[in-house]
């Protein structure tokens, strides 16, 4: 093992560039999936005619597909439909769609966890269904769903490594290039990459645990 060559300034800089791409990819996907996932979750909870059933079918379909397949489809399938995406945006689309389906289920479950007595009390006080949803159900449900949503974002961050299949220059992709220099630096490079992923995800795990321990 050659730690000196593996951790040379040039290699470290190249890996940090990959980490930067990974974090940008995760950040954009988190924002988009959270917005779309919350919207879909609320619609499913509200049981809107037709829309809820169609969204439910779509969500269940996406949740049961491999993320790798969605990335392949976004990068190589969409161009056949006239939609050409760069590796970055193909990964964004695939990750956002997949994670939005997961988050929608978390949101729906979080809203359903609000006690019926609380909802009935709000309705009895004169609030309409929409007002009850906005002022009672959503605030309570959102506090309860924060920990599982953060945990889902941790999974998203790890899943960004799958973007290596579309040659996106994220951390795993750059690590593969570094390891291709010499077999003696493969293990040191893998150790460093593992440490980077662990550190980032461990920080998010701590946040999730602290949020989970907060009273609702």
From TrEMBL:
Its main location: membrane. The chain crosses the membrane at residues 21-42, 54-76, 183-204. It is found in: Cell membrane. Residues 19-208 form the ABC transmembrane type-1 domain. Keywords: Cell membrane, Membrane, Transmembrane, Transmembrane helix, Transport. It is a multi-pass membrane protein. It holds the Pfam family BPD_transp_1. It comes from the Bacteria. The keyword Transmembrane helix applies. Gene3D superfamilies: MetI-like (1.10.3720.10). InterPro entries: AA_ABC_transptr_permease_3TM, ArtM/GltK/GlnP/TcyL/YhdX-like, MetI-like, MetI-like_sf. The keyword Magnesium does not apply. Belongs to the binding-protein-dependent transport system permease family. This is Amino acid ABC transporter permease.
């Amino acid at each position: 093992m050659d730690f000196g060559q593996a951790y040379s300034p040039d290699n470290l800089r190249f890996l940090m560039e990959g980490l930067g791409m990974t974090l940008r990819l995760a950040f954009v996907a988190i924002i988009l999936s959270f917005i779309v996932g919350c919207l879909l979750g609320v619609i499913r909870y509200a049981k809107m005619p037709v829309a809820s059933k169609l969204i439910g079918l779509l969500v269940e379909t996406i949740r049961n597909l491999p993320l790798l397949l969605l990335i392949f489809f976004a990068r190589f399938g969409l161009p056949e439909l006239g939609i050409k995406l760069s590796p970055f945006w193909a990964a964004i689309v695939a990750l956002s769609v997949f994670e939005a389906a997961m988050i929608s289920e978390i949101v729906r479950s979080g809203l359903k966890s609000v006690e019926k007595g609380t909802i009935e009390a709000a309705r009895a006080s004169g609030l309409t269904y929409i007002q009850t949803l906005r002022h009672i159900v959503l605030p309570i449900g959102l506090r309860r769903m924060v920990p599982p949503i953060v945990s889902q974002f941790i999974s998203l961050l790890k899943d960004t490594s799958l973007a290596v299949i579309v040659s996106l220059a994220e951390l795993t992709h750059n690590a593969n290039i570094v390891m291709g220099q010499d077999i003696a630096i493969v293990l040191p490079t893998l150790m460093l990459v593992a440490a980077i992923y662990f550190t980032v995800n461990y920080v998010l795990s701590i946040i999730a645990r602290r949020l989970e321990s907060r009273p609702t």
